[in-house]
Design a protein that fits this description.
Anti-anti-sigma factor; five-stranded mixed sheet
């Protein structure tokens, strides 16, 4: 039974999945999000994944590692991931704590994330 609004929405836009995180997720919710997104990458044969974290006012080390893991799994399944919407205060805290997104592409917002993916497609480049 659903006890409230969705914590995450995953929408399909052509061959791209756009996942918007609406509120902070605890560790078990983060793992559920990872599993749902990875399943949908295969189900929809996605070539791009955008994860919008604009609603988050904190990204802890577990969330950061999970986002990196999602990007690694997506890459192994043939999709490029872009994380968008990291708030300035969150970025500042992540840098001070030595956390980052590793090799995962980031963009300011959804529009720039879509442009990044379009640029990769236009150049014929594929991440390995």
């Amino acid at each position: 039974m659903n006890s409230g609004p969705a914590l995450v929405s995953i929408l399909r836009q052509g061959d791209t999945l756009v996942a918007s995180v609406h509120t902070a997720l605890d560790d078990s919710e983060m793992v559920r999000f990872q599993n749902d997104l990875v399943r949908q990458i295969g189900e929809y044969r996605a070539r791009g994944v955008i994860i919008d974290v604009a609603a988050l006012d904190v990204i802890d080390s577990f969330a950061s590692r999970t986002l990196q893991t999602i990007a690694d799994i997506a890459r192994l399944r043939g999709a490029v991931t872009v994380i968008v919407g990291i708030q300035p205060e969150v970025a500042f805290a992540m840098v001070r704590l030595g956390m980052g997104m590793g090799e995962v592409a980031t963009a300011l917002d959804l529009e720039e994330g879509m442009a990044h993916l379009a640029g990769l497609r236009g150049s014929g480049a594929r991440r390995e």
